[in-house]
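Contributing new records

If you add data, match the layout below exactly. Sequence lines come first and carry their own label; structure lines follow with theirs. Keep one chain per record. Anything else will be rejected by the validation script.
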Amino acid sequence: MANETRTRTGRSDSRDQEIEQLRRQLHDLMPFLTAGHNPSDGVLEEFDSRTELLIREALGETSEMLEAYEYAQVGEAAGLVNFPDEAPEGGATMKDHKRESLNQRKRVIESCIAELEASRAQLKKEPVYADAVIGPQVAHHMTPEPRSVYAKMTLREAARFMHEWRVGSLLVTDDRAYVGMITDSDLARVVVAGAADPATTPVGACMRQPLIVIESDRHILDAVRMMKEMGTRHLAVVDNGDVIGVISVSNILRYYSGVL
């Protein structure tokens, strides 16, 4: 028991040091976010190398946070989930992209610190809130109350609803259950590239099926990995088998950009 206590104390001390090092990185990052401050590429490369080393040492080579930090350096959805058409639309300047990337770095470092603090609390047998242990959950960043259309509706009607509701995807129902999803990218591909008639082509003929789902209590980075593996930018979120929302690349990007 004494040896176990010393081991646990040693690991806790190590966590203290790792947390302090990442807090210093976070402190060093803050001036970069100040208006008018424009760090050089060389300075950022040095900062990123140091941060990646600390994350690797604290959380491991295969850590989700290490992967997230690599995506954060890109600063746009194209880098987050490998979809070039998800990059910021017209009007964004290089300065905007750089600031967005810096904000994402900040969020990832903060998440690393939170994960390490939760681990330290467990080592000390201190009470830990479930959210602190699990990390940012899909349910906390999804779009609740998803919009839907019937499979027999036309693509034109679906496009009108997307515009009216300001959403990038719609669940598709057959009156009994959700059977698929259609997105703005699907519409563009089918109508523009495929030359389908939007006035007569039913949604059901172009939807993505079966519906790709993720549990609401999964880590937000699980959603990133699933999007990459399944080649989609939208996932239906389920709780006990019921669809309760949709999480998209935009939701994930807003989280890592610090936009509420």
